[in-house]
DNA sequence: GCTCAGGGCATTTTT
DNA sequence: TGCCCTGAGC
């Protein structure tokens, strides 16, 4: 019989076999969500439903891939292959490519990533004569993205008084014009940004009923993963595509909705029952992942939330250990404590490195833990930070590919027209861009038809340089037609000179850049081989379509196997680890409680959910750690643990601190400072524990300016060795003192100074702020 | 066209 | 801190 059904509990079983009509599957943390979703699809296939009539939407490529693999295992490779399964963006990008004509876009349209969007917005701000100190590209991009996600097109934006009022209050009344111009220029470049993929799909289905009809005919079943993370645009598309037979199945967990900042609407899942009154609801409440303690503690955190679908998540596993709360005095100590716990539990219970995860709120918090792990030689891997595809060398080469496929792509052109250097500078580029705007066309169409008698005042030499560039791209276009993606891209990499240039750069950065290019080419080779095997099109344009929607998380490296994982709570969603440290739990790192920020009930509840997500990643043991003081952005903050920790019933907690004694000793040295300042007060830099200061004021004028990034230190102006023994100096905190001795060399000059009232101190001059009296 | 000092600025993130 | 941008100076 259908043996895969045997592996399911009652709720899961129901959710798998009741395939008709609208269904809401509430999948609590660790309740076997993926299993239910994949088996439901497999079940449909076994019932004789054709795979090409099933549309399954996810948020990440990884989720789509994993699900496809699991379905293939149950229902067979062939079946899985014909499913319409992928991310919202990739599926709709595919549909838009097929239906490009009615929208007036070329089928080879480029997909702009966030960096392209931002760069274009910057250009527009400049060309409109606006001040980019006021109109910050990031903020403007955020406003435009938000508008698009809510299907507000430029005209509507300009005519909606509430929106204009917000812009006005932000002192950016011209965003509406920027938006209009942005849309126009994207169109001229034959480009869509990420939000367009959703927006244009909505417009496509709204304005072209025949097209909608075609897809309604095509898809008999629509399934959506992580429904709580859908934004308005996604919500509407899903609604439209399932409007015919209402075979819509959404899976999600309102308790794990933590993406409101990027437009996710928890209401979508909360209101499902109203949208589809005839719906069935399935609650997967048994948690197979965590101990009872962890599940109960997590439940108790979100119990206070008003906005939620009632459910009783429970675990039948053993009760397990209480959650350990570690309070450290400084962030360094926090790192130390975490590493100490890792070593201790490893010795005792023989965990692997990969059984541990360190979760934090912001990527910037990783550093302390990296250092602590490195000191103990514990291998770790970090998620987040600069993604592979965001690296300069990768983006440069990809820009050549983009130009080759869609030469109208202005952002790509601007990136490479002078890289490698061709002597086409900023002034020339500006002239070209203005000409393109005036002509309502792309830069390419201007330079393609340049002759020496051009109207835009370019001299002969420049025209020659530009036409050489045009030749290069045209040459690439020819060789792309004649080669598969791998051979085309390899030739492009060689002929542009990028490969040689990076090969000749023997600095560590240069070597790594060269390796990255090689890695990209290897990836393309894989793509080409794969295309050959499956019979799918393997041209460069096909690769480019894939790569635009690819991210770092899609490349798991073999050498990353047995390592401690460091990541943000957000990126840990969907993962599980035997042991989880939730670190940096100070109040002021939780933004809903940060000073000066509006506290809304929504924000508060989302913070609880974030806390919930963090805790439910743990299978066996969990720790909450925080530091009482943290050095951050040049200030020393005094902190207290997050209030959510206080909301937790102590019955789940073990607050005994493994290093209580040491901590007490150390506390004394900070005591006076802590007493003198209430929580959250910022104080001047302390003398110790600071890695560097930017400037030193000696004698009232800047003598030394020190910049120290991770690998280099540089000095300008005069030398701090101006400070001589015998001088009377004034220090910010220790007051007046007399220099006794100077030793060492730049940048490590040490001064021994006797301070009245503070005794003798030895200061490293690059850290000390001194005034010569 | 390139380098470098100085200023300004900081969530969370997928596509 | 640390990173990115800009403008000055070469």
Would you write up a description of this structure?
By secondary structure, this protein is an alpha/beta fold. 45% of the residues lie in helices and 17% in strands. The chain contains 31 helices and 27 strands. The strands form six sheets. Strands 11, 12, 13, 14, 15, 16, 17, 18 and 19 form a nine-stranded mixed sheet that branches. It is globular, with a radius of gyration of 30 Å. The termini are far apart. About 7% of the residues have low confidence. It binds a DNA duplex (15 and 10 nucleotides) through helix 5, helix 12 and strand 21.
Name a few traits of the molecule.
single chain, 773 residues, alpha/beta, six-stranded parallel β-sheet, 45% helix, globular, DNA-binding
């Amino acid at each position: 019989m259908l043996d895969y059904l045997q592996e399911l509990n009652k709720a899961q079983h129901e959710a798998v076999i009741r395939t008709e009509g609208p269904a809401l599957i509430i999948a609590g943390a660790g309740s076997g969500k993926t299993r239910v979703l994949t088996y439901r699809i497999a079940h449909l296939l076994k019932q004789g439903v054709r795979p090409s009539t099933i549309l399954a939407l996810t948020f990440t490529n990884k989720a789509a891939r994993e699900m496809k693999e699991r379905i293939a295992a149950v229902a067979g490779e062939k079946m899985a292959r014909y499913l319409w399964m992928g991310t919202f963006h990739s599926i709709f990008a595919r549909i838009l490519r097929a239906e490009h004509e009615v929208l007036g876009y070329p089928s080879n349209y480029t997909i702009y990533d966030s960096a392209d969007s931002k760069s274009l917005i910057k250009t527009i701000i400049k060309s409109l004569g606006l001040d980019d100190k006021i109109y910050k590209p990031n903020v403007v991009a955020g406003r435009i993205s938000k508008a698009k996600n809510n299907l507000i097109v430029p005209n509507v934006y300009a005519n909606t008084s509430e929106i204009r009022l917000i812009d006005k209050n932000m002192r950016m009344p011209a965003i509406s014009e920027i938006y209009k111009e942005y849309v126009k220029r994207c169109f001229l470049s034959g480009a869509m940004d990420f939000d367009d993929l959703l927006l244009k799909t909505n417009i496509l289905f709204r304005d072209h009923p025949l097209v909608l009809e075609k897809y309604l005919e095509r898809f008999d079943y629509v399934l959506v993963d992580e429904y709580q993370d859908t934004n308005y645009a996604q919500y509407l598309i899903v609604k439209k595509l399932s409007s015919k037979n209402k075979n819509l199945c959404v899976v999600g967990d309102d308790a794990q909705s933590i993406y409101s900042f990027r437009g996710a609407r928890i209401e979508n899942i909360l209101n499902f029952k109203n949208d589809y009154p005839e719906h069935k609801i399935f609650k997967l409440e048994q948690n197979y992942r965590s101990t009872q303690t962890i599940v109960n503690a997590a439940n108790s955190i979100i119990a206070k939330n008003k906005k939620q679908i009632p459910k009783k998540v429970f675990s039948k596993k053993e009760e397990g250990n209480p959650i350990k709360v570690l309070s450290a005095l400084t962030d360094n100590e926090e790192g130390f404590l975490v590493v100490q716990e890792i070593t201790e539990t490893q010795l005792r219970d023989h965990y692997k490195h990969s059984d541990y995860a360190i979760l934090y709120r912001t990527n910037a918090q990783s550093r302390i833990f990296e250092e602590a792990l490195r000191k103990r030689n514990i291998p770790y891997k970090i998620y987040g930070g600069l993604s592979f595809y965001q690296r300069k060398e990768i983006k440069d080469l990809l820009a050549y590919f983009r130009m080759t496929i869609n030469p109208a792509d202005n952002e790509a052109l601007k990136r490479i027209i002078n890289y490698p250097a061709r002597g086409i500078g900023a002034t020339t580029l500006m002239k070209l861009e203005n000409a393109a705007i005036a002509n309502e066309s792309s830069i390419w169409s201007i330079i393609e038809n340049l002759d020496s008698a051009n109207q835009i005042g370019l001299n002969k030499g420049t025209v020659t340089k530009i036409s050489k560039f045009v030749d290069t791209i045209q040459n690439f276009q020819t060789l792309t037609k004649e080669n598969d993606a791998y051979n085309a891209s390899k030739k492009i990499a060689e002929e542009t000179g990028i490969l040689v240039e990076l090969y000749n750069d023997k600095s560590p950065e240069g070597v790594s850049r060269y390796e990255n290019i090689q890695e990209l080419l290897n990836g393309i080779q894989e793509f080409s081989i794969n295309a050959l095997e499956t019979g799918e099109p393997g041209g460069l344009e096909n690769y480019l379509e894939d790569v635009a929607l690819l991210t770092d998380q899609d490349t798991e490296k073999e050498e990353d196997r047995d390592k401690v994982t460091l990541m943000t709570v957000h990126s840990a969603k969907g993962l599980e680890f035997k042991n989880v440290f939730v670190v940096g739990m100070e109040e002021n790192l939780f933004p809903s409680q940060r000073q000066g920020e509006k506290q809304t009930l929504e924000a508060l509840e989302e913070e609880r959910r974030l806390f919930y997500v963090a805790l439910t990643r743990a299978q066996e043991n969990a720790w909450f750690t925080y530091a009482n003081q943290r050095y951050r952005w040049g200030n020393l903050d005094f902190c207290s643990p997050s209030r959510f920790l206080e909301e937790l019933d102590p019955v789940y907690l073990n607050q005994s601190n493994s290093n209580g004694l040491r901590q007490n000793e150390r506390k004394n040295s900070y005591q006076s400072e802590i007493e003198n300042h209430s929580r959250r007060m910022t104080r001047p830099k302390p003398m110790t524990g600071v890695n560097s200061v930017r400037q030193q004021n000696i004698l009232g004028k800047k003598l030394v300016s020190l910049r120290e990034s991770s690998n280099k230190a540089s000095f300008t102006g005069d030398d701090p060795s101006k400070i001589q023994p015998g001088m009377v100096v004034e220090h910010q905190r220790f007051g007046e003192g007399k220099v006794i001795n100077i030793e060492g060399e730049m940048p490590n000059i040490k001064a021994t100074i006797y301070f009245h009232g503070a005794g003798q101190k030895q200061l490293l001059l690059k850290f000390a702020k001194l005034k010569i009296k």
